[in-house]
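Fill in residues.
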């Protein structure tokens, strides 16, 4: 099996290079090799690679910046994804793509299932939803994984930002009225590889039909709860911070306005994925502990 991975330099892309490698011949491309800001340039890249599976980890993920760069976000998250889907259909390839919890408005009190009505509140959410819709409209075989609050030991993400701020500040305020499940890029990559493997194992060399699945860790917390647990893990490892636990303050979203509106509830119901692939999605704290150990082991402790 030949797999083409796009966006290898991002958080999920980096982990996918590891998880996909045992499945077959892996060709991993960075942004410089496949420019999602110029959608039509992707066609010759795909034609030359002729993969059986296309895994797209490339995306415009600057949620607030997208409000002032809607055209760029649209090209990367919608138009380019549509091109991938069209080419996947022409090649007979499976397209694996990652979407987001931000396609929902967060008004629901319980976790979102795949068939719940979408109503994104931001440019980022709207462009990611359009990407999903273009994949479905293309007729390509596909797996779309909606993820939630992704973090890793590398790159720019909430967990690493909290560590940096805790080194620099004695007081920090974090919102506590937005709920979701912090999900590690490692978990996303491992589940993706397992799903691809099990699809092929079920039908010999033929890849079955398509679908949208929610892929997130179990449980839920607030951004404040996420930050507090990061600090607890660091303190348990004997590393001092300027920020004392009692000075991590919980505030409502109204006191921390941002350009892009976030959903109040980003919790995703993952039972469809777990049932279809026989998977167990661990609690969000499980992989966070591993990630903090990795950051510390690499000498990036405060």
């Amino acid at each position: 099996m030949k797999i083409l991975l796009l966006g290898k330099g991002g958080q999920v892309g980096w982990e996918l290079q590891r998880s996909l490698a045992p499945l077959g011949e892996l060709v991993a491309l960075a942004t410089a090799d496949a420019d999602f800001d110029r959608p039509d340039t992707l066609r010759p890249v795909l034609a030359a690679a002729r993969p059986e599976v296309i895994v797209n980890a490339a995306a415009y993920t600057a949620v607030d910046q997208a409000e002032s760069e809607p055209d760029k976000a649209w090209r990367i998250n919608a138009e380019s994804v549509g091109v991938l889907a069209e080419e996947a259909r022409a090649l007979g390839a499976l397209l694996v793509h990652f979407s987001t919890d931000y396609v929902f408005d967060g008004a629901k009190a319980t976790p979102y299932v795949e068939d719940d009505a979408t109503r994104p509140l931001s440019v980022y959410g709207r462009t990611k939803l359009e990407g999903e819709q273009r994949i479905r409209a293309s007729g390509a075989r596909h797996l779309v994984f909606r993820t939630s609050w992704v973090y890793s030991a590398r790159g720019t993400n909430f967990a690493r930002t909290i560590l940096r701020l805790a080194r620099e500040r004695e007081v920090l305020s974090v919102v506590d009225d937005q709920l979701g499940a912090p999900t590690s890029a490692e978990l996303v990559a491992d589940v993706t590889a397992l799903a691809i493997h099990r699809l092929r194992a079920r039908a010999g060399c033929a890849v079955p039909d398509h679908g949208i699945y929610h892929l997130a860790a179990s449980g839920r917390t607030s951004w404040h709860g996420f930050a507090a647990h990061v600090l607890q893990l660091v303190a348990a490892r004997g590393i001092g911070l300027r920020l004392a636990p009692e000075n991590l303050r919980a505030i409502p979203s109204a006191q921390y306005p941002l350009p892009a509106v976030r959903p109040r509830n980003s919790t995703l119901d993952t039972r469809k994925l777990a049932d279809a692939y026989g998977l167990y999605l661990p609690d969000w704290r499980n992989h966070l502990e591993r990630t903090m150990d990795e950051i510390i082991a690499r000498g990036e402790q405060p």
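The CA atoms of residues 67 and 123 lie 6 Å apart.
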